Amino acid sequence: MRRRDLIAVGTVALAGAAATSALASESAAPAEGVTLNISGVGLPVVADGRLRNYVFVTVKLTLAPGADATAMRGKDPFFRDALVRTAHRAPFTVPGDWTRLNENAINAAMMAIANVVSGPGSVVKSEVLMQTPRRRTGVPGGA
Length: 143
Description:
Blueprint: H1 3-28, E1 35-47, E2 50-63, H2 69-74, H3 76-89, E3 93-94, E4 97-101, H4 103-117, E5 123-133
Antiparallel strand pairs: 1-2, 2-5, 3-4
Helix pairs in contact: 3-4
């Protein structure tokens, strides 16, 4: 057997296994609610009118029971763009800390964005899963 054929067979087998696991996870998900993860969005930290840092945020959106998960995944770029534009207009900065953002403000903004992008009631809940600052030092006036 040629090496090229062996690699092709392995790739097809891996793709089939990934598709099977994805279908299994989607079929199990409706019991707890289908979710959409929006990861790696870089949001600015602005203090005293100056850009101090960027924090990369992962947000999990819980979709309504009747929402189409496939259509929502296609709207991921719109959610990202709207979140970045909102963060540049009115930063989610936590006073006194340049390494994290206000999670409640991000969640409220994502719910408002979801009402515009995908229609009212299509997203039930927004949750910030992770915040990773670009620069780890973020104490104003400190080291």
